[in-house]
Amino acid sequence: xxxxxxxxxxxxxxxxxxxxxxxxxxxxxxxxxxxxxxxxxxxxxxxxxxxxxxxxxxxxxxxxxxxxxxxxxxxxxxxxxxxxxxxxxxxxxxxxxxxxxxxxxxxxxxxxxxxxxxxxxxxxxxxxxxxxxxxxxxxxxxxxxxxxxxxxxxxxxxxxxxxxxxxxxxxxxxxxxxxxxxxxxxxxxxxxxxxxxxxxxxxxxxxxxxxxxxxxxxxxxxxxxxxxxxxxxxxxxxxxxxxxxxxxxxxxxxxxxxxxxxxxxxxxxxxxxxxxxxxxxxxxxxxxxxxxxxxxxxxxxxxxxxxxxxxxxxxxxxxxxxxxxxxxxxxxxxxxxxxxxxxxxxxxxxxxxxxxxxxxxxxxxxxxxxxxxxxxxxxxxxxxxxxxxxxxxxxxxxxxxxxxxxxxxxxxxxxxxxxxxxxxxxxxxxxxxxxxxxxxxxxxxxxxxxxxxxxxxxxxxxxxxxxxxxxx
Length: 472
What we know:
By secondary structure, the chain is of the alpha+beta class. It contains 16 helices and 14 strands.
């Protein structure tokens, strides 16, 4: 499996031997084995004989028992991306037989830790409980977030029912739906076999001019292209004195426009390599090896097209390797005079720019928003909202770590805008935090990078306060 991951990395144009990727094959292989551990288990084993007869319930007439909000983490069989959410289980005990409540979570995990579709997962959980607990009826509702939909993914709701809880039996299904509403439920509960989608209102990126906070911007430019922030030490991060011309900028940004993955961008005719039919075929074969390593059959229905879909997504998600900082700068040439920012005393701010990238340590997505502030300077170049989004996308569509992405964006915007200072804040959710190991679906990572006047803490605080105020 590790060799297969290495083939996928090379197929994108990357160098698996570089720092940051050296242990990625091992991590990804280990994570996929963990994601497929449900193939080694059964519902019967998960239940473990935890069935009890309650005499008071033997003659009870169809009283529903519900276990809500069982968290699950699974892997989509069509693209090998994680999906996660909550599972709700209800059943009507028969002959007073009840199951240990924790066993329902174990049964859900058995089937979630396989390559799945959400409806299939819902059906398998319902069938397993119906077969092992043998109730009068069972109903299962799953609400899942799917990464293929991006950062504004709608909440998908699926259901399954058997026995007396079938909708065709009327009253019990209505009672089940009413119970689901007691603790609140986004959207509606579809009948078995159908999917309901609840779409939250997406946030809209925006840019604006911000009134100055009486901050004197001292402007001085070094030959390396970095702007002075007026600090007393007069040093850039690599130690040379500002303005003395001893920096060639290579310590932070390679000529290809990236710090760590420059080797990939220097590959001869990278675009042709990534489109080469033999290369794509090798990548698809590597995906089949990974599916087999997880414990499934890549030739079965539902998985036959998965290798092609996964490779297509991977290449799409890393097409930023084909774009350099010079490419981005060349699109602005010839428009410098027309695009100069009108004289305005305050910084230009872009809020809520979409970020969708892939963690280079786990080959899993991370997504969120970027906020950019550009401090004014004479001859500053205006960047439209579309251009800002293109820059963010170019650096996001690579195998990344959030810290490096944030720094690369700050360097890029400093070079492209010719501003007196740049500050970039990135807020992102990482699927490696959700679907692997610690399973923290609510954890968010925030990173920031600055240059020029925004190296001063008071200027940083002003911009962070502006971001917070925009959410009120």
